Structure formats: structure tokens, C-alpha cells
Amino acid sequence: MPADPPLLDLAVIGGGASGFFTAIQYAEMAPGKQVGIFEKGSHYLQKVRISGGGRCNVTHACFDPRDLSRHYPRGSRELLAAFHRWQPTDTIEWFQRHGVTLKAEPDGRMFPITDSSETIIACFLEQARKHHISLHPKHSLTEISQLEDGSFFLNFDGSAPSVRSRRVCIATGSLKESPLLKQLLGLGQSIEPLVPSLFAFNVSDRRISDLAGVSHPRVVVRCEASKESQSGPLLITHRGFSGPAILRLSAWEARALAAENHHFAFVIDWLPDMKPDALHTIFAENRRLHGAKLVRNSPIPPISKRLWERIVACSGIAEDMTWGQVSKTCTQALLDGLKNARFEVTGKTTNKDEFVTCGGIVRKTIDFRSMESRVTPGLYFTGECIDIDGITGGFNFQAAWTTAHIAATAMAQAE
Questions:
Q1: Residue 237 counted as domain residue
Q2: How far is CA 373 from the centre of its chain?
């Protein structure tokens, strides 16, 4: 170790959303302290840049902590208390104070009014400059150890100089395949195994072949082996299925699906707001009132014409069959195709840069009143490196802002 490595008050490992928010808030609350952000890559805030298709889905317009916490498959109990301290209202106000106005879309997602993630990035970089936070790109942490005085020694790969810091905040995002894992284990941290969350389903099935781009406003989906279901819009893709309903199901069932190597069966109810008896009534009325009309030309809203034609064909109903010709067997097959459509998943498709993993630092090893390690005093964790993850819609960023605020507040109050 060098004789006199630079001494910081706070070293933040990770130049992403929670890392910048932790550093900035700490610097705001503890003026004059020496703060540095160390990023292993060449660029900062990469996930912010690509979030929401480049618009940055900053948070979600859900302002009740209990309702908000229900959007997290893992960590909802811990975040419930945390959201009483910092929730979307606080996030909106913070950005407003710093020159960024957010807007809510009909589905609750919130974006900067510029519809550009660069607005958020510019805000963070300006605040880092204003508070004299030093930025260190291409600094991949290779060693972290705690010294006798409680401070930490940090070593980085390449020619980057070593650093000593009174406190360290790990804000790296997912710890998947990170050399930091070994270092944290060496400090006594426990880590929940990492598996993918928020992924699309790969499905090869004639019912959806050539239908890429077709969407449906609301379905209910569940894994065949589970009674728990999720709902929301669905999108047919070139590889299978995506959309909020699929992503939610992948999040809540993440560990079970990983255990099956992402080969499993799931079921779609295309008309969740319509009971089977109501469908039988529609079929009977079509036979009575529109007996000469082709079945394939009579889609039931909100099912699109293309999707309806495929469901009809896969129910054994010929193209020229009219409602008056439909047999009981075909009627039941059509009902099953609408209310209980079973598909086999043969893998997943994940946007490795934007989507998240479940797993990470075990929650019970962190004091959520301060985000400080219960094992290693002076070591803090924020954002997705913790075994916390939310569904799509701005919830993961909100967890990042909340945990960052709690950590920054605790460290500033300890000064």
C-alpha cells in the first residue's frame, strides 16, 4: 500500500443512478467533505441513458408507500418503511429544485418533460461539479479492506492510484460476474445468488408465428406450475412474448424460472374481464343472430383481427366455417384458446444493459434505517446491488433514489 494514499470522506463505487444520487445528497448535507465516484467503465449513468428508450423513466406516480412497495417482488417489506422517508413525491421535488421538471404519463410512468435522459445526466453531472465531487472513470475495484482505524483501503486495476476512505458506498448495480463479489464475501457480506429478472419469453408456436408487433391491452398470465398470476398489456415479438404482463411474471417467478433453466409452460387469458359464461353467451348469440357470418371475421373486442384469426384457426375452425356450423368441440377449443391458452417457453431474451437481476447483498445484513452493513461498519449499499428489484415502470429507479437518500442522510448525520 502506498505510504500516503489520498483520504476521502466517502468513496462511492459505481457511477450509476444510485451512486450519483448518494454522492450528491451526501455532499449537499455535509458541505466541504471529500467525495469521489469510481466507475469501472468509461462513461457514467449508462443505465439512465438507455432507460425508457432514451427518455429515462425516473419514477412512477404512485404516492402511497404501501401501494408503492407492492411493486417489488423482493424487498417490499424493507422498502415499505423506506418509502415513508423518501418516495416519488420527494423525488419529483428534488429534481424540480435542481431544474428538472417531471411529467406523468397515463400509465403512471414519469419522465423529464424534455423526454430525454440527457436531461437527468446533465443534472447529475452539474451537481457533481457544483459540489466538487471527483469523478474517476476506468476505475475497476480489485481490492477493498478495512484498516484498524475503521477506514477502507481501495485498490483499482491498472495504473490507477490506491485510495483510502472513511466510508464506502457500494452502488454498482447488479453484482453479476463482478470481481467485487469475492471482496465483499471477504468482508463477511452474504450474497443472494443472482438470477435474471424482467425478461421476455422465447416461444415458437404457430399461434403467434408472423404476428410480431401485435399487442393486446390486457391479459392475465401465470406459470402453469403456479397459482399466482400477473396482468397487463402483452406484446408478441419475433421471439415470443414481451410486454408488462410478461415482464411482471418473469420478475415474480424469477427464481423458480431460473431453477427450470427458463424452460417452462405458462397460460394466457386473453379476455380476463370476460367470464366463460359470458363468452358462451356471445357464441350462442352469434349462432342465432349471425349464423351465416364467418367466424374468422367476427373478432371479440379487444382482440385484434390478426390475433383472432390465428386463435380461430388453431381451434380447428376452417377459414370458411360460419357461426352456424361451429360444433360443440370447436366451441370448447375456441373458449380454451381465449381463456386458457398454454404455451411452452424455451428460453429468455434479456436486454443485458437495461434489465435487472434479482439477488445481491442479502437484505437482512443491511440496516435499512441507514443502508449500512450490519457486518462491516462504515460500508453502505444502495440500489440494485442489494437483493431488491421492482417491476418495470420506474420502480427500480425509485428504489435507487430512496436507498441513496437514506444512506446519504445517515452518513451526513454521523459527521
A1: yes
A2: 24
Are 56 and 105 members of one domain?
A: yes
**Are 350 and 366 in contact, with CB atoms under 8 Å apart?**
no
Task: List beta partners, residue 141.
Answer: 156
Residues 389/269/243/404 CA torsion (nearest 10 deg): -20
On whether both 23 and 159 belong to a single domain, the answer is yes
Domain stops at, among 349, 373, 396: 349
Can you give the pLDDT at residue 2?
Answer: 46
- Quick one: 127 and 222 in the same domain? no
Which one, of 320, 275, 316, lies nearest residue 295 by Cα? 320
107 and 11 in a common domain:
yes
pLDDT tens per residue across span 307-346: 999 999 999 999 999 999 999 999 999 999 999 999 999 9
Q: What is the CATH number of the domain that holds 11?
A: 3.50.50.60
Positive or negative, the CA dihedral 268, 270, 275, 277 is negative
How far apart are alpha carbons 305 and 321 in whole angstroms? 16
Which residues contact residue 329 at a Cβ distance below 8 angstroms, ignoring those fewer than 6 apart?
Answer: 316
Q: Is residue 1 part of a domain?
A: no
204 and 183 housed in the same domain: no
Residues 210, 358, single domain; the answer is: no
Model pLDDT, residue 103: 98
Question: What H or E segment, with its residue span, contains residue 248?
Answer: helix 244-252
Q: Please give the full DSSP string across 86-133, using - where no structure is assigned.
A: S-HHHHHHHHHHTT--EEE-TTSEEEETT--HHHHHHHHHHHHHHTT-
| Radius of gyration in angstroms for the set of CA atoms belonging to the chain, rounded to a whole number | 25
pLDDT the model gives residue 98: 98
First to last CA, the chain: 27
Q: Quick one: pLDDT at residue 182?
A: 85
CA distance 378 to 189: 13
- The number of distinct structural domains making up the chain is 2
Mark the ranges of the chain whose per-residue pLDDT is less than 70.
1-4, 176-178, 351-355
**DSSP state at residue 194:** E
Does residue 93 lie within any of the structural domains? Answer: yes
Domain that holds residue 11: 7-195+354-413
Q: How many CB atoms lie within 10 A of CB 6?
A: 15
What residue type is 142 in one-letter code?
A: T
Q: Provide the pLDDT for residue 415.
A: 81
The grid coordinates of residue 269 equal 387469458
Tell me how far CA of residue 352 lies from CA of 46, 180, 279, 358, in angstroms: 12, 19, 41, 13
Q: Are residues 311 and 217 in the same domain?
A: yes
